[in-house]
């Protein structure tokens, strides 16, 4: 095997960092949501890489579970976005300040 | 450079490119499409790592179903990327955020460098219960991880019910709803005249 | 062999649970069946246990059943365990026997009451608590029963809680009892501190070595335990709750006065007789308080006009007798009197209940008279009980009282003064009891025509217990015939295993009633009987033959009479000396300490919180992105810390 595991881990770190930047700077809530999905997938990639390195498949199962949670999260989160958009007519994250003070 | 390395480099570049473009886009539809691109590139890397089943799941479930859900919502809300998103954050705040992320990234790399992993054994792919195959993962899923697996089922059920409850209109057919519908009807001709 | 001991208290508990949990859902016959059968079953088991114990050789007459460890905490270990020895055997027989009769009586007496189910539930709980008290094998479990009877007395005295006087009386009983309980607890602490155990057997075993004979600690422990007994058994100065306990239903009074509750103090003193034998000073205090209470309460009883109140003071007085016996180290005599007293006092109260029942609720003996024609059974049984309590020869009270008087005179701890006080009390008792009988059942009929029209004998469920108790009042004393008659005092020998250990401790013999003094004993007994009959005749003269004499005596002794009628103003004195300062102190604590200091502190904290959150809330911008940024910064810091560590 020619590509070292650390390369895969580094790729995961890069993707995770991109996801973090996205979450921090984007003002569109749907993009923000997608950035979270990206971060989840970066973590998944690290899991897969470790699985491969240690020759166990438990990581695969974890990835599977993470995907399930992501799907559930997407369903609920998008539902919330629809509701908020219906009430506030915006997808600007900075205007979602219901919990202010 | 072996063929493995070539495949890895190409996939990695595509995945990073897709992720970066997703963030940079103004139009959410384009963002979704770039994310799908990134995910497919990641799936290639999954398969390269021997995670055949999970990689396929990623394409089918993630890139397929979940991203379509995003697209669907974007369409439903009729977003075209021209929405008022307010002022972009100030330069200082933006800079701070980049710095934080960079620090985070450096720390991650530092951690990765510190990990000592044994050299991975060679992959055997021509058997039905090989590493990462459907059979092998399912065996784990239905024996050792049966209980968490069952719980995800419950989680999904709760998510479905929750999504329905959240997205549902409070009192369908009642007065506020009707007035809202009337107002949109009343606005439609105006838009028409504008156009 | 003692596997079923736990069932004796358990059965009433089950009865309580059934009746208590299903209040208002059971028909009355089922309630009475559950209530009576549970106690009846306990009675049968108690008899069984008694005969099994009797079958054992004298020195082996102890049955223990350890159910489970209750508080296993290091060196402090307490079991839920039951102990059956001759003493507790007598007690469970009295409690279940008299208790059962009272339950049966209540079926008739309480038949029209709204709270029928509640009443029987409390009654069963009362029996359960008392059985726990007498069957416990350690001080702590005994204390559980001790508190249990306190609680039940509160519940039952205040049974008709809509009546203010009843709920007040309940509270009074509870609070006064609590004062005593405090002493009991402290005494328990001293015992545990010195002996390292609360188990009766261990304490009695080790006490002679753990304490020095007559030392300060043992005296303190005994006196503190006795404070508990004072509260529970209504002695001076804590007797005030018992007369007020009349506010409860009459069978409850019978239960409290005869079978349960007030006897607990006597039982406890006898149970720890080894400790008391080690502390002669404490014994003397017991004797003095007992004698003083006996005389004091008897004088009050002379002039009371409420039928139940007379009986209440009579109980206080008789309890004083029992403590007098304990105080002169005649423990078996004390328990003997406890038993006979249980019979005739229960009978007196139940009879009084029957009278009140017949009189449509009237309790004032000045409005009665001539009742013997209308309620014959009640009259005859009441008369039997009166003869018994007066100590007419042949009746149960005669033997037990005589035993106490003789011991007070002759015991190593006794003195002729105690004997004299006992004798005067006996005369007073005879007088006021016959006064009660004559005013109630003889002479002119002073009730109004309406009441007279309704006069009727009580139903069978009430008269049958009366008759059984009547028989017991007569024959109950025959188990303890004095040795001077040439008979064997079965009762005293029965209790020997319990009291022997204590009497070994002191050099002079406690049982001084040896043959050498037989002549003296006979003489004293003869004098007593003569005087008692004289007191009877005096009562007869004053209240039947020449009723105007009573009025004249009353007018002559005007001031004294008023003082007695008002019970020496004890309640008022307590109110002035104790209650008022307490109210003042409590008001101070309430207005100053509580409202200003404690509340001020708490409210100040709340205001501080409000103030600081007013300042801090500006951190909460409500912007998701700034939260996320802070979050990410936090993650960076944590990971950085973990790396650099």
From TrEMBL, chain A:
Superkingdom in the source lineage: Bacteria
Residues annotated as transmembrane: 6-25, 30-50, 62-84
GO cellular component, one term: plasma membrane
InterPro entries listed in its UniProt record: CcmK-like_sf, NADH_UbQ_OxRdtase_chain4L/K, NUOK/Mnh_C1-like
Catalytic class of the enzyme: translocase
Keyword Nucleotide-binding: no
Keywords from the UniProt entry: Cell membrane, Membrane, NAD, Quinone, Translocase, Transmembrane, Transmembrane helix, Transport, Ubiquinone
GO annotation terms (biological process): ATP synthesis coupled electron transport
The UniProt record lists the keyword Oxidoreductase: no
PANTHER family: NADH DEHYDROGENASE SUBUNIT 4L-RELATED (PTHR11434:SF21), NADH-UBIQUINONE OXIDOREDUCTASE SUBUNIT ND4L (PTHR11434)
Subunit and partners: NDH-1 is composed of 14 different subunits. Subunits NuoA, H, J, K, L, M, N constitute the membrane sector of the complex.
Role played: NDH-1 shuttles electrons from NADH, via FMN and iron-sulfur (Fe-S) centers, to quinones in the respiratory chain. The immediate electron acceptor for the enzyme in this species is believed to be ubiquinone. Couples the redox reaction to proton translocation (for every two electrons transferred, four hydrogen ions are translocated across the cytoplasmic membrane), and thus conserves the redox energy in a proton gradient.
HAMAP family xref list: NDH1_NuoK
Name assigned to this protein: NADH-quinone oxidoreductase subunit K
Automatic annotation (TrEMBL), chain B:
Enzyme Commission no: 7.1.1.-
InterPro entries documented for this protein: NADH_UbQ/plastoQ_OxRdtase_su6, Nuo/plastoQ_OxRdtase_6_NuoJ
Transmembrane segments: 6-24, 31-49, 55-77, 98-116, 145-167
Chief subcellular location: membrane
Region Disordered, residue ranges: 175-195
Membrane topology listed for this record: Multi-pass membrane protein
GO CC annotation: plasma membrane
Keywords of the record: Cell membrane, Membrane, NAD, Quinone, Transmembrane, Transmembrane helix
Localization: Cell membrane
Enzyme class: translocase
Catalysed transformations (reactions): a quinone + NADH + 5 H(+)(in) = a quinol + NAD(+) + 4 H(+)(out)
GO terms for MF: NADH dehydrogenase (ubiquinone) activity; quinone binding
Reported function: NDH-1 shuttles electrons from NADH, via FMN and iron-sulfur (Fe-S) centers, to quinones in the respiratory chain. Couples the redox reaction to proton translocation (for every two electrons transferred, four hydrogen ions are translocated across the cytoplasmic membrane), and thus conserves the redox energy in a proton gradient.
Family: Belongs to the complex I subunit 6 family.
Protein name: NADH-quinone oxidoreductase subunit J
The organism's taxonomic lineage, starting at the top: Bacteria, candidate division GN15
TrEMBL record, chain C:
Sequence intervals crossing the membrane: 6-23, 30-51, 87-107, 119-137, 143-161, 182-204, 210-231, 252-270, 282-303, 310-336, 342-359, 379-399, 419-441, 462-485, 524-544, 626-644
UniProt keyword Transmembrane helix, yes or no: yes
Pfam family, one: Proton_antipo_M
Keywords: Membrane, Transmembrane, Transmembrane helix
Domain NADH-Ubiquinone oxidoreductase (complex I) chain 5 N-terminal: 70-120
Domain of life: Bacteria
InterPro entries, sorted: NADHpl_OxRdtase_5_subgr, ND/Mrp_TM, NU5C-like, Proton_antipo_N
Membrane topology: Multi-pass membrane protein
Stretches assigned to the NADH:quinone oxidoreductase/Mrp antiporter transmembrane domain: 136-429
GO terms classed as biological process: ATP synthesis coupled electron transport; electron transport coupled proton transport
Gene Ontology molecular function terms on file: NADH dehydrogenase (ubiquinone) activity; NADH dehydrogenase activity
Protein name as catalogued: NADH-quinone oxidoreductase subunit L
């Amino acid at each position: 095997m020619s590509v070292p595991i650390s390369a895969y881990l580094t790729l995961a770190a890069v993707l995770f960092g991109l996801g973090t930047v996205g979450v921090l700077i984007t003002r569109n809530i749907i993009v923000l949501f997608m950035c979270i999905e990206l971060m989840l997938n970066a973590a998944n990639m690290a899991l897969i890489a470790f699985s491969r390195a240690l020759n166990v498949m438990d990581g695969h199962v974890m990835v599977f579970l993470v995907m399930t949670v992501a799907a559930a999260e997407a369903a609920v989160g998008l539902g919330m976005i629809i509701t908020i958009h219906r009430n506030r007519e915006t997808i600007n994250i900075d205007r979602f300040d219901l919990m202010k003070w | 450079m072996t063929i493995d390395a070539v495949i890895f480099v190409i996939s990695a570049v595509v995945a990073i490119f897709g992720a970066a473009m997703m963030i940079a886009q103004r139009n959410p539809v384009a963002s979704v499409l770039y994310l799908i691109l990134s995910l497919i590139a990641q799936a290639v890397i999954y398969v390269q790592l021997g995670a055949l089943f999970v990689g396929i799941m990623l394409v089918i479930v993630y890139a397929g179903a979940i991203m379509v859900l995003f697209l669907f919502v974007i369409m439903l809300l009729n977003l075209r990327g021209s929405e008022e998103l307010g002022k972009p954050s100030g330069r200082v705040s933006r800079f701070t955020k980049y710095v934080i992320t960079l620090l985070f990234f450096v720390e991650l790399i530092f951690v990765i460098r510190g990990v000592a992993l044994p050299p991975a054994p060679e992959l055997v792919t021509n058997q039905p219960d090989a590493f990462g195959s459907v059979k092998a993962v399912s065996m784990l899923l239905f024996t050792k991880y049966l209980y968490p697996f069952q719980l995800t089922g419950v989680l999904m059920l709760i998510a479905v019910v929750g999504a329905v409850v959240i997205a549902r209109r409070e009192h369908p057919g009642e007065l506020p709803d009707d007035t809202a519908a009337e107002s949109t009807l009343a606005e439609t001709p105006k838009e028409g005249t504008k156009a | 062999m003692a596997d079923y001991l736990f069932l004796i208290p358990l059965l009433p508990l089950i009865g309580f649970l059934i009746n208590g949990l299903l209040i208002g859902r059971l028909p009355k016959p089922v309630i009475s069946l559950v209530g009576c059968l549970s106690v009846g079953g306990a009675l049968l088991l108690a008899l069984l246990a008694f005969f099994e114990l009797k079958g054992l050789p004298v020195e082996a007459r102890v049955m223990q059943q350890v159910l489970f460890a209750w508080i296993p905490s290091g060196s402090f270990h307490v079991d839920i365990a039951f102990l059956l020895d001759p003493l507790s055997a007598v007690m469970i027989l009295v409690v279940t026997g008299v208790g059962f009769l009272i339950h049966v009586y209540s079926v008739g007496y309480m038949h029209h009451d709204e709270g029928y189910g509640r009443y029987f539930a409390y009654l069963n709980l009362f029996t359960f608590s008392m059985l726990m008290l007498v069957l416990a094998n350690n001080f702590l479990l005994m204390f559980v029963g001790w508190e249990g009877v306190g609680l039940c007395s509160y519940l039952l005295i205040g049974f008709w809680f809509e009546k203010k006087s009843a709920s007040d009386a309940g509270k009074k009983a509870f609070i006064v009892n609590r004062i005593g309980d405090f002493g009991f607890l402290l005494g328990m602490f001293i015992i545990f501190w010195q002996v390292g155990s609360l188990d009766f057997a261990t304490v009695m075993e080790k006490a002679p070595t753990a304490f020095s004979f007559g030392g300060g600690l043992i005296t303190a422990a005994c006196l503190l335990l006795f404070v508990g007994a004072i509260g529970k058994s209504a002695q001076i100065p804590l007797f005030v709750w018992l007369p007020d306990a009349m506010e409860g239903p009459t069978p409850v009074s019978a239960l409290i006065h005869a079978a349960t509750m007030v006897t607990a103090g006597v039982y406890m003193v006898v149970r720890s007789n080894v400790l008391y034998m080690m502390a002669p000073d404490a014994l003397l205090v017991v004797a003095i308080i007992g004698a003083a209470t006996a005389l004091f309460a008897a004088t009050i009883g002379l002039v009371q006009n409420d039928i139940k109140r007379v009986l209440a003071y009579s109980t206080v007085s008789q309890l004083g007798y029992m403590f007098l016996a304990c105080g002169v180290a005649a423990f078996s005599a004390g328990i003997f009197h406890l038993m006979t007293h249980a019979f005739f006092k229960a009978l007196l109260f139940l009879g009084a209940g029957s009278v009140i029942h017949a009189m449509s609720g009237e309790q004032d003996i000045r409005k009665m008279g001539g009742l013997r024609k209308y309620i014959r059974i009640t009259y005859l049984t009441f008369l039997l009980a009166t003869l018994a309590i007066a100590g007419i020869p042949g009746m149960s009270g005669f033997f037990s009282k005589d035993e106490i008087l003789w011991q007070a005179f002759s015991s190593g701890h006794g003195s002729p003064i105690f004997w004299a006080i006992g004798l005067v009390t006996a005369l007073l008792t005879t007088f006021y009891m016959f006064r009660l009988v004559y005013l109630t059942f003889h002479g002119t009929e002073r009730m109004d025509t309406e009441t007279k029209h309704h006069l009727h004998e009580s139903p069978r469920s009430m008269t049958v217990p009366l008759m059984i108790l009547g028989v017991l009042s007569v024959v109950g004393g025959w188990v303890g015939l004095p040795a001077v008659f040439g008979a064997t005092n079965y009762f005293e020998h029965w209790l020997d295993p319990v009291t022997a250990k204590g009497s070994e401790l002191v050099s002079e013999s406690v049982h001084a009633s040896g043959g050498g003094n037989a002549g003296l004993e006979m003489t004293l007994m003869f004098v007593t009987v003569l005087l008692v009959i004289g007191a009877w005749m005096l009562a007869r003269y004053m209240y039947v033959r020449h009723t105007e004499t009573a009025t004249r005596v009353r007018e002559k002794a005007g001031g004294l009479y008023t003082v007695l009628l008002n019970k020496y103003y004890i309640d008022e004195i307590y109110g002035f000396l104790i209650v008022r300062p307490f109210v003042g102190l409590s008001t101070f604590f309430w207005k100053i300490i509580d409202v200003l200091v404690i509340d001020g502190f708490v409210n100040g904290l709340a205001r501080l919180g409000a103030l600081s959150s007013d300042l801090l809330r500006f951190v909460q911008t409500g912007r998701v992105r700034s939260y996320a940024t802070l979050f990410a910064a936090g993650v960076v810091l944590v990971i950085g810390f973990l790396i650099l560590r």
